[in-house]
Amino acid sequence: MLRIAVPNKGSLSGPATDMLREAGYRQRRDTRELVLADADNGVEFFFLRPRDVAVYVGSGTVDVGITGRDLLLDSAADAVEHLPLGFATSTFRFAAPAGTVTEVEQIAGKRVASSYTTLVADHLGRLGVEPSAIVHLDGAVESSVRLGVADVIADVVETGTTLRAAGLEVFGEPILRSEAVLIRRSGDSEPEGLDVLTRRLQGVITAREYVLLDYDVPIELVDKAVAVTPGFESPTVSPLHNGESAAVRAMVRRSETNRVMDALYEIGARGILVTSIHACRL
Length: 282
Ligand SMILES: Nc1ncnc2c1ncn2[C@@H]1O[C@H](COP(=O)(O)OP(=O)(O)OP(=O)(O)O)[C@@H](O)[C@H]1O
Ligand SMILES: O=P(O)(O)OC[C@H]1O[C@H](OP(=O)(O)OP(=O)(O)O)[C@H](O)[C@@H]1O
Ligand SMILES: [Mg+2]
What we know:
magnesium ion binding, 282 residues, Alpha-Beta Plaits, glycosyltransferase, D-Maltodextrin-Binding Protein, domain 2, five-stranded mixed β-sheet, ATP-binding, alpha/beta
């Protein structure tokens, strides 16, 4: 059985469970359940603290796990990214009270607070910037400057709302762009069953990212329309009974749906329909 670690709490937990359920796996009903066997699919889930997922995967006690790229790097565990999952996207950034620090080099001699101290130390080490201290905090890092334990913070930023509320501003380039990732142990050959899990998760990711677009277009305009909707390999083009038009079906990025529909309409396509993809294997 493939042993899969899943975050039991925090930002990653709900979306990770949703994705696994969409991929056809059993998921727990009660958040106090810590182990769940899904014998029909040949997998076993272990619900662990998000920070611990990489530690278990790195030690080989579970085969794969879902965690954040930032947590993986901070753990320094013997594990590698296997598949980016496209949710819990965030950046990891330095921030300080508005106008006090504007460049990463100015962190030299200052105190930096973070929940990701290994990640911060590695990053500053690579840049050759020496802070006076790197202060480890469990959370609510944005309050540390006001409360006087640090001059600068390094933390997860998504909308920036938390930073603004604390009177802080980001500075320097993002340290990292993070998202949820499926990880496995470094160097090991792929555990049995990982290929199926990977294909299933890729199917969910594609079904979320793409829609199916159907439209009718006069035959002489097919080439022009197809250039706008090239699909994955090549779109399906079927003749209509009237002999003058064709029906075209292609996958299109969900985020581009309306732009593509406008362009197709402009070319002369009509009856443009958008359908969500429930599941897929490419
Ligand atoms: N606001 C957010 N938006 C997107 N991703 C986030 C956000 N907050 C945390 N994350 C991501 O969640 C992971 C951190 O897991 P963690 O369990 O610490 O989440 P959390 O939401 O901070 O949980 P908690 O605060 O309950 O401990 C990291 O990969 C981080 O990038
Ligand atoms: O840019 P934003 O959209 O405001 O999101 C970023 C905030 O979300 C997370 O905090 P969380 O709520 O998990 O609290 P924590 O600091 O206690 O972990 C993260 O640590 C940031 O503080
Ligand atoms: Mg948090």
